[in-house]
């Protein structure tokens, strides 16, 4: 059977489905577009996820049939013989009698069937070459995508390595600050009985992180909630802890905070009022030791609130 069950015509690029049925490639494509599913148009069996390969064996059978049919139908009008030879000089099909006649005797002639098969072999070779090129192109694109995914994963890993968990140093906490057992949260409390060790901040109501940094990028997300009195940021190791100081870069503080219902302040000299559309409940503090930047952003929408630019010469907490 060399006719398509879908269009009833002789196969054109027949493709073989998993169920064993053959269909014209174009017929199958149109059927799948209309059906919105990839199934056999003959038996309804679910097919593969992509267009099946061309059935080369059936294609050869169809081509041979068409060649034979064409040769059977073509008759020389001069000699009533089948047209079996093609004259390259005149570019016309001729019969064997024409070939030995005076008009074509010295012309270059070749068998039509041989030329036809040679042409189809050329077309098949061309198709195979293009398919190989498409396969190579697909392989290259897949490799490029894999490389991009790998690069993105490396970037994610690098970013994750810059995000540090805030662990507070209880030895630096002011006596009016109470730390949770996990040392990750702090709140105001009545004065606690704490040893007045050299590291403890007694002039400013603050607490430092347990880990200091001298290089690289680091990031923390701090939840301030609905509190109306808070300051967060970074401080250098040599801040004055026992005498009164101002929260400013000159004194070793790069901080910002809220000290009233609807006001945010960057603690510059003098301090700078910062306007925001919405008061943040969670802030992200980004420290770049090498570039001398401390960036505060709203963790909810990543909107930049304020950026300090300075030169850091010692460890920061």
TrEMBL record:
Residues 135-162 form a coiled coil. The keyword rRNA processing does not apply. Residues 145-317 form the B30.2/SPRY domain. Keywords: Coiled coil, Metal-binding, Zinc, Zinc-finger. The lineage of its organism: Eukaryota, Metazoa, Chordata, Craniata, Vertebrata. This is Uncharacterized protein. GO terms for cellular component: cytoplasm. It comes from Poecilia reticulata. The keyword Coiled coil applies.
